[in-house]
Design brief:
It is found in: Cell outer membrane. By secondary structure, the protein is mainly β. The chain has a domain at about 1-70: Immunoglobulin-like, CATH 2.60.40. The chain is built from 9 helices and 48 strands. The strands form 10 sheets. The chain has a 22-stranded antiparallel barrel. Strands 9-14-15-12-13 form a 5-stranded mixed β-sheet. A 4-stranded antiparallel β-sheet has the order 3-2-4-5, with no helix packed on it.
Length: about 1000
């Protein structure tokens, strides 16, 4: 089964007319059908193509080609609370097919979207198994709140916010979307403009991602197996000093013979080799689907296991999916989409929100880079050897990275997503659907840092640190959806959609922390053995009620109008602003349907689109932030008895309200030569006001800060996508590409404030984009005879920073904005070729013009003693080697944060290359394909760190483009098989 361009069509419905027999085509466009009729008439139907009927006489095999339906204009696309024909869509919506997502084996569906959708930037903040990933649709839309889009899986709303947070902004936490199996996905639709997202009102400001999983089809049951196995390896290592070079550095820093004969020590221990490894990855899924006229089903089971390239890190997913649809009568249909998973994540401490020394002691990657190559990893008995127990305790300030790998840091998460529905059609054109969507998740977090990895001297004060945390979350959503669709005469088509929804979020957690254990025998399973114990618990609840209406109108299939309005009420906002109203409108003109275009046969579709509307962001704050809050504080003693104190912590704000985004969009869609060439482009302008911002308060107020609607920002951009079928004969070749240009600007801050300090190296500035870096300017090294400027804190042989204002001293006024983390543009490119059973695909993605602040260099270009440095510092400054790049060794010294550590983060990455072969089978197996695949084959970049695609602070909107020892990228080599029976 193929389209008229000879490309195979998957999922074509093949039915015997006037009988219950039927089936669907497989991934090769092939099908097998048995019938008792002598000369059956087969009907072939597929969305976006003209239905074709064929009478079978004595043929054993048939070849069928379907023609594109010019009125359908391609496939039906999923929109909020329903579907539309692609040609009738007036908003900015992009779709990704399941084949594209599965082309690159990933653990997270967002990874499969990266580089394939214009207007969407995906950043793998951490490459750890199941690690943190962020997605931005048309830029950053918040400061203190989330900029993550809303994810809707089969109608169930899901957040990509990490289930727990850490000091690095969630970068070490598992992404909730890693719990959804990408192999189950049928399609992904990304809603980008206001007319497409306003239907989700208060949750649509950051865009919406609609994920649809596979459902059953009428016909013979089909069993499929999809699996792969592979190996992963790191793509880059840092070049550190060997033992001889390090020993000489130590002698120079301390001006004594710490090591008697440095040259005799040779290479020493390569600590990166100690913690990095070649790691396996595997995925296995069995799926069964089929159905009769009344009941269709699809179910699957999945096992995914990824060992990390850092020792003792891994992620495991067990998942089950059931999609069931049953028609009770002509009027009533019921069904469910059930997805449940159990996930185990063993993480390793990577990434650091701190500078310098803490980065070397808390991140296993930092510990490995900083570990003295003169020390030993293991004791004679094979256990990890703490550094403080070697060389008479000289290196107590650094840690053995193998010890950090022994820390238990495990999350076990059970999650169930369900959509239970009943759909009634009392009369033609009218449908009522009731959805009941529970999302239930629970996480058990286990932590234990053993006594065995501590220095002997430190054990005197007690050893062993434990924690056990339970987090339970229940989201209950009900939606009543009313749909009426009709045609008036032949020229007018009208569709009305009305929705009432109510959603409650209930979260509770309890934690026990303990320290000072007698031994490591029970780890954190017997915290009552610890000398010190503390407990805490919390519970929160919030609710969102929504009312929505949408009208889709088309005149002569030529002029399109969409009107949308939604009102949302949320308990988390101030008493005076519980409700928000979010209207939007879109218009479309299908020029290709005009009479004067009928003779222009080269053009299949030409459509102009425009939209304008308002959306909101309810995820910008948590519950109770509009209220006066209190919390437990210090312990007080009355009559020698301890009592916990309670103190006010939050100022009430009855005017706290929604963040609102007002967006205008103009777009064009063009298809040529029977859809062999397709082009789409959009220009947008989005202004977000009433941004929630934490304003600092004077100490005299008794509070540190207040949360209010104190800022505004703007995103403007252009996005374009093109795809083409170059050859469509025996040799097939198609290509696709997209590019996005987005400009972000902070428009205002509270009280006329023009600048706000975010960290030692980043600021917010009115009139500038978020993610702005501001530091001193590196001006070389102080040479012999130079005068060291007051305030610089430097020395001869130390860093010289530029006296920008030429006042003869170094102050904060000498700091300058040195760049920002936002790219000039992002892009993606893919190509697919096939010939005689063989197929070859390649996919590339890239980012251009962004800056990355490399804090790894800051740490390992600062020779202050007791830790290893970059090998390049063998060329450090000395009186006989007046280097103007690397400072001399200086005990306990510090270097300033300068533009020296700001690097070009641009890159072009080959995300995937896959070569496959369709094995011809004639019996039992209806189709089989074997393939070999390479992920992250190469990256072209000037960035000196492990990888330019990084953000230590996870989903932060202000601290972006910062590299401070996060989990490194892996290249994977895979062999896989896809079989259908």
């Amino acid at each position: 089964m193929a389209a008229d361009n000879s490309l195979p069509l998957v999922g074509v419905s093949v039915r015997v007319l006037h009988a219950s027999e039927g089936t669907v085509t497989n991934v090769d466009g092939a099908f097998t059908l048995t019938t008792t009729q002598a000369h059956p008439v087969l009907s072939f139907s597929f969305t976006g193509y003209l239905t074709k009927e064929l009478t079978i006489t004595n043929q054993q095999t048939v070849a069928v080609s379907l023609e594109v339906d010019p009125k359908a204009l391609g496939e039906v696309v999923v929109v909020g609370y329903g579907t539309q024909r692609k040609g009738d869509v007036a908003g900015a919506i992009s779709s990704v097919k399941s084949a594209d997502i599965r082309q690159t084996p990933v653990s997270n569906v967002v990874q499969g979207i990266q580089g394939r959708v214009p207007g969407v930037q995906v950043t793998q903040n951490s490459a750890a198994p199941g690690g943190s990933i962020s997605m931005r649709i048309r830029g950053v839309n918040s400061i203190n709140g989330t900029s993550e889009p809303l994810y809707v899986v089969d109608g169930v709303q899901l957040s990509n916010t990490p289930l727990t947070s850490d000091g690095a902004g969630g970068v070490t936490q598992i992404s909730p979307l890693s719990m959804v199996n990408p192999d189950d996905i049928e399609s992904v639709a990304v809603l980008k403009d206001a007319s497409a997202t306003a239907i989700y009102g208060a949750r649509g400001a950051n865009g919406v991602v609609l994920i649809t999983t596979r459902r059953g089809q009428l016909g013979k049951s089909v069993v499929t197996y999809n699996g792969y196995y592979g190996e992963q390896e790191t793509t880059k290592r840092m070049h550190m000093m060997d033992a001889s070079q390090f020993a000489q550095l130590e002698n120079d820093i301390y001006h004594t013979n710490v090591y008697d004969d440095p040259a005799s020590l040779g290479k020493g221990i390569d600590w990166q080799d100690q913690i990095l490894r070649t790691a396996p990855i595997q995925n296995h899924q069995i799926a069964v689907s089929g159905g009769s006229d009344k009941t269709q089903f699809a179910m699957s089971g999945n096992y995914f296991k990824q060992e990390g390239v850092i020792i003792n890190s891994n992620f495991t997913r067990y998942a089950f999916r059931l999609n069931l649809d049953h028609r009770l009568s002509k009027l009533l249909k019921v069904g469910t989409s059930l997805y449940t998973s159990y996930n185990v994540n063993n993480s390793i401490p990577t990434g650091s929100s701190s500078l310098d020394a803490p980065a070397v002691t808390t991140s296993i990657l930092g510990a490995a880079l900083g570990a003295p190559p003169t020390l030993q990893p293991y004791k004679p008995d094979g256990t990890e050897w703490p550094f403080g127990d070697q060389m008479d305790g000289r290196y107590r300030e650094v840690v053995n990275p193998l010890g950090l790998a022994q820390i238990l840091n495990q999350d076990k998460t059970s999650q169930t997503l369900a959509n239970i529905y009943a759909e009634i059609t009392p009369f033609k054109g009218f449908t009522y659907r009731a959805n009941f969507d529970p999302v239930i998740s629970s996480t058990l977090h286990d932590y234990y840092s053993p006594r065995s990895i501590m220095n002997s001297a430190d054990l005197a004060g007690g050893g062993g640190t434990a924690a056990k945390t339970n987090v339970n979350n229940v989201v209950l959503l009900h939606e009543s959806i009313f749909t009426y669709e009709t045609k008036i005469k032949t020229s007018h088509s009208l569709k009305f959609t009305g929705v009432f929804a109510t959603q409650s979020n209930n979260t509770n957690n309890n934690t026990i922390n303990a320290s000072n254990f007698p031994n490591d025998a029970t780890k954190n399973e017997a915290v009552q053995l610890a000398v010190n114990r503390t407990v805490s618990s919390a519970r929160s609840k919030d609710r969102l009620d929504s009312y929505m209406g949408r009208i889709n109108y088309a005149f002569k299939n030529r002029y399109l109008v969409d009107l949308i309005a939604r009102a949302d009420g949320a308990t988390k906002f101030g008493e005076n602003n519980k409700y928000g109203f979010f209207p939007a409108a879109a218009v479309g003109w299908r020029i290709s349907e005009e009479p004067f275009m009928k003779d222009v046969r080269v053009i299949d579709n030409l459509k102009l689109r425009g939209s304008y509307g308002l959306t909101g962001n309810a995820g910008a704050i948590g519950p109770y932030q509009s209220l006066a809050t209190v919390s437990a504080t210090n312990t007080y003693y009355f009559n020698h008895a301890a009592a916990s104190g309670i103190a006010p912590t939050g100022i009430p704000n009855a005017d706290l309200r929604w963040e609102k985004s007002l967006q205008a969009d103009i777009g064009i869609d063009l298809s040529l030569w029977n859809s062999r060439l397709n082009f789409t482009a959009d220009v947008y302008n989005k202004k977000t006001k009433d941004l929630l911002f934490v304003q600092q308060l004077p100490l005299s107020s008794g509070y540190g800060s207040i949360t209010g609607n104190f800022a505004s920002l703007q995103n403007r951009g252009v996005e374009m996508a093109v795809d083409a079928v170059i050859f469509n004969g025996a040799f097939k070749w198609n290509v696709a590409a997209n590019i996005t240009i987005n400009r972000n600007k902070l428009l205002s801050l509270t009280g006329g404030l023009q600048e706000y300090t975010v960290s030692n190296y980043s600021v917010l500035q009115v009139g500038q984009p978020l993610g702005l870096f501001k530091t001193y300017l590196f001006n070389g090294i102080y040479q012999t005879g130079d005068s060291v400027l007051p305030g610089s804190g430097s020395r001869i042989g130390g860093v010289k920073v530029k006296d920008v204002n030429t006042d003869g001293q170094i102050t904060a006024d000498d700091q300058k904005v040195i760049g920002n983390a936002n790219p000039s543009f992002i892009y993606g490119f893919s190509t697919n070729l096939s010939f005689k059973g063989f197929d070859l695909s390649a996919f590339f993605s890239g980012v251009q013009g962004n800056k990355v602040y490399n804090l790894i260099r800051y740490t390992f270009e600062n020779p202050l003693g007791n830790r290893n440095m970059y090998a390049a510092l063998a060329n450090r400054w000395s009186p006989t080697n007046p280097s103007n790049e690397y400072v001399s060794g200086f005990q306990g010294g510090r270097i300033p944060l300068t533009d020296r550590f700001l690097e070009n983060g641009s890159y072009l990455r080959c995300k995937n290359i896959t070569l496959g072969y369709h094995v011809p089978f004639k019996k039992v197996v209806s189709s089989a394909r074997i393939y070999a695949s390479v992920n992250n084959l190469f990256t072209i970049t000037k960035y000196s760190g492990f990888d330019p695609e990084v953000n230590t602070f996870g989903n932060s909107n202000t601290l972006i483009g910062v590299d401070n020892l996060v989990y490194p990228l892996a290249r994977s080599y895979l062999l896989g098989v896809q079989v259908s029976f």
